[in-house]
Amino acid sequence: MKLQKKSLLASLATAVVLVGMSTSASAGIDITNWQLNLNSLSGQPGYSNVANVLDSGINNLSFGGESYVTNTPTTQQGIYTSTDVGVFDITQKNGGVPLNLGGGQLTAYFTGTDLTNTNTGVFTFQGGTFSVYYNPTMVYGTTSANNYGSTAGTMIATFSVANTGNPNTSGGFINPNGTPASNGQVTVTGQAPTTLTPSNIFLDSNGNLFNQNILLSFVTTNASEDLSANKSSYTIDPNLVAGLGQAPGTYNGQGGPNYFIQNGGQFKLQYAPEPMTVALFGAGLLAMGWSLRRRSNV
């Protein structure tokens, strides 16, 4: 099939990535001093608490949460197709400064599919979505409804997860039993936001709208198996189990290498300049795009 110049350049212009905090994995340029404009939600019924609420000077957002990973064996020994479901609470910025959330909550919900190879000790994301929510009241962790409260309120942003085939940019490293490696880092690479509502929920340091060439970095720097879900010492919150879509009493290792995973890390917004963005989507695409861009300037 002939690849048209127009369609390729359009793809390059809209592609953005969620990348890790490490400079070796990151393809973007960190956005600093950006703003979370919750005031933009204040016109909705029940959201008067965020009137005039705008948190500025944000370099990154800190999160904590939990995920459940289900691994289904393939016909190849040690290789699994996996599904991930995660719930996260976002309460701080810049390494420990409380966010001004107007008495409400900022949360996130993740669903992903990945390919897990216990022979090589890596997994890579194949797809999924990462969505951010704001709710005017704090319910996260108090109920099994709305995915442990993580999807309560208004969805303000949704990012699609891309398959880069690289565990350093969209995946991570695991032990032979499928649990995260010690101090395991998980990085999710995604595309331009499919939802950004309202459009001025995120603003730059000058109070201007971002264009679509931004990315949200999602890094878990301390992913680890949640030992409270071990069968022999089962103390995990039942609401969390249900909120992650699991049956009551589900424990680590039940039915195979399936685990509850504790997560903690940071989100970053970044600009994804070409051709650095495209590099994460394959050297072939990069070569074609760069070639066409050069020809167009001749």
Outline the secondary-structure elements.
Elements: H1 5-14, E1 29-30, E2 34-36, E3 55-58, E4 61-73, E5 79-93, E6 97-98, E7 105-117, E8 122-135, H2 145-148, E9 154-161, E10 171-173, E11 184-188, E12 190-196, E13 202-203, E14 214-225, H3 238-243, E15 259-271, H4 276-279, H5 283-296
Antiparallel strand pairs: 1-15, 2-3, 2-13, 4-5, 4-15, 5-6, 5-7, 7-8, 8-9, 8-10, 9-12, 11-14, 14-15
Keywords:
298 residues, mainly beta, 12-stranded antiparallel β-sheet, 3-stranded antiparallel β-sheet, 15 strands, disordered N terminus
Envelope shape: globular
- Secondary-structure-derived class: mainly beta
Largest β sheet strand count, sense and barrel closure? 12 strands, antiparallel
Radius of gyration: 20 Å
The separation of the N and C termini measures: 25 Å
Instruction: Please report the total strand number as a whole number.
Output: 15
Share of β-strand residues: 35-45%
Regions with pLDDT < 50 over 5+ consecutive residues?
A: 1-24, 274-295
Assembly type of the chains comes to: single chain
Secondary-structure element order, as H and E? HEEEEEEEEHEEEEEEHEHH
Helix content: 10-25%
- Helical segment tally? 5
Average pLDDT number:
81
Describe the structure.
The chain has five helices and 15 strands. With 298 residues, the chain is mainly beta. Mean pLDDT is 81; it is low at 1-24 and 274-295.
